[in-house]
Amino acid sequence: MRIRILVTGGTFDKEYDELSGTLFFRDTHVPEVLSRGRCMLDVQMDTVMMIDSLEMDDERRATIVARARDCEERAVVITHGTDTMVHTAHALADARIAGKTIVLTGAMVPYAFGSSDGLFNLGSAVSFVQVLPPGVYVAMNGQHFTWDAVRKNRESGCFETA
Amino acid sequence: MRIRILVTGGTFDKEYDELSGTLFFRDTHVPEVLSRGRCMLDVQMDTVMMIDSLEMDDERRATIVARARDCEERAVVITHGTDTMVHTAHALADARIAGKTIVLTGAMVPYAFGSSDGLFNLGSAVSFVQVLPPGVYVAMNGQHFTWDAVRKNRESGCFETA
Amino acid sequence: MRIRILVTGGTFDKEYDELSGTLFFRDTHVPEVLSRGRCMLDVQMDTVMMIDSLEMDDERRATIVARARDCEERAVVITHGTDTMVHTAHALADARIAGKTIVLTGAMVPYAFGSSDGLFNLGSAVSFVQVLPPGVYVAMNGQHFTWDAVRKNRESGCFETA
Amino acid sequence: MRIRILVTGGTFDKEYDELSGTLFFRDTHVPEVLSRGRCMLDVQMDTVMMIDSLEMDDERRATIVARARDCEERAVVITHGTDTMVHTAHALADARIAGKTIVLTGAMVPYAFGSSDGLFNLGSAVSFVQVLPPGVYVAMNGQHFTWDAVRKNRESGCFETA
Fold first, then answer.
1. Interface of chain D toward chain C, CB-CB under 8 angstroms
2. End-to-end alpha-carbon separation of chain A, Å?
3. Which of C119, C109, C154, C107 minimizes the C-alpha distance to A17?
4. Which of A7, A131, A149, B47 has a CA 20 to 30 Å removed from the CA of B66?
5. Is residue D41 a contact partner of residue D131, using CB atoms and an 8 Å limit?
6. How close, in Å, is residue B33 to chain A by CA atoms?
7. pLDDT digits (tens, 9 = 90+) for D91-140
């Protein structure tokens, strides 16, 4: 089984620009995370975009949906900013992509900052994607949720059943 | 669903003793890993023992088997040294514990050393344990293996289908 | 010899707020840095303020100058944002504080982000403050500069002789 | 002013071998430490040997003394295991090398383990070496000691005046 990972940015991949003192995107850290996890899965990774969750719009969502639909793999993991992850999950479900297990995940703290939940979440997402039946899911906080029964709790920063 | 985590030590939980320059065990890092992963699962953790994989013997395996069999939870994760993890998986399978999904995991690098695979592996193990059917499994390298079809490759340090 | 450390904030002490995705101040990390460095110096630390370098103004500089002048210790280290560190060094020099060695230092990357220069810089600053003659200095990039012969190079982020 | 750094190994440079579960030496981390510290000093580094402090003997000490004596720089930092650092300091002092400031430093925790004191200690050592008068010193725990008035306290792991 080969897994396709579609990278879209989000907190997961943010870095600190020491000259401006702001957060920005450079390259994705997904390969480094998989390497640190000694991941031996057959993974094909694409950087689809590198944007903040708040910049996500319908056009970009259409791009993500197309990439998830058109790739050969039946197991697809999408890294995504947490603020609009559920919205994108809905767009993916609306596309009625048959026979594919699609799992969205992300991070609350940038992987580059050392204390990130990204390593845990990606380990969780690549695991769920191998064994869950076809459908669209969010994998965060060690849990998996179906696209139509999940929301992000803005106060705790955690995902919960909606 | 509540998950029981049984801690037995292994590389996952080793620390560096700066006075003697050797590796040793103190408390388990599993709670810190779950906290860093912002894990919201209902988890009950027990430190069953804190030993090196090479110290594992039949008596200790019997203790682990008893703890996995006697706990209330139907989902059980066991952290274990990698060198004898498969051997303990066999002992668990031999006990024919009905109706439980048991997942063994561990790490190649101590969690305390910063570059560990432990965060990835525990994220993977708690995910697999929620969705795999009853049985005994090893979750390492982003993959899951059934107890009777896995071995550790001593040269690469990775687990593979046997 | 006792050393007084006056904490004023700056990048050194910034943290990531995972709910808002922005940088903010909580408590200073100076005690953790000294502890990690196994520092055995007699150190007295005060958090004078916790502000971004760009918020520094003449009133706040007057507060810092007063604290450096009025403390009992003859060795004073000040952690400070790098953008206006040289300006504050001038204010300290203008105060003509007799018999004291005052060393300003900071960081380009927050200590909390793991890859910070803060540990190196504080190790450098507490060393210079013990052996340099009375005066006002900036200790950054492994070097020490007198207050009237230093500037921050905005393009490289490094300090250099002016 | 150019600084010569002579690397001899010690805990500072130890790494974890994930296949054998033991500590070993590969390449020195001194360049990475200087880079993380955004060090702008003119530094010339040589790896003289990569050994555990306990393997240090008179022949190897003679090699270190020769390298410290023969290099062009008047400022020399030596990274060294902490257990026999004071012994090597004596050997350097016995050589009566005129006009050079020689500072030995090391670490209690390997730099590669994330929570190391190595970054702090190297920041301290390169600072002391620039301003102390000619002589042989140990720089540890934020302090500097002359070669003939220092010992390592085996119980605390800290250096103290002898």
1. 33-34, 36-41, 108, 114-117, 119-128, 130-132, 139-144, 157-160
2. 31
3. C109
4. A131
5. no
6. 8
7. 999 999 999 999 999 999 999 998 899 999 999 999 999 999 999 999 99
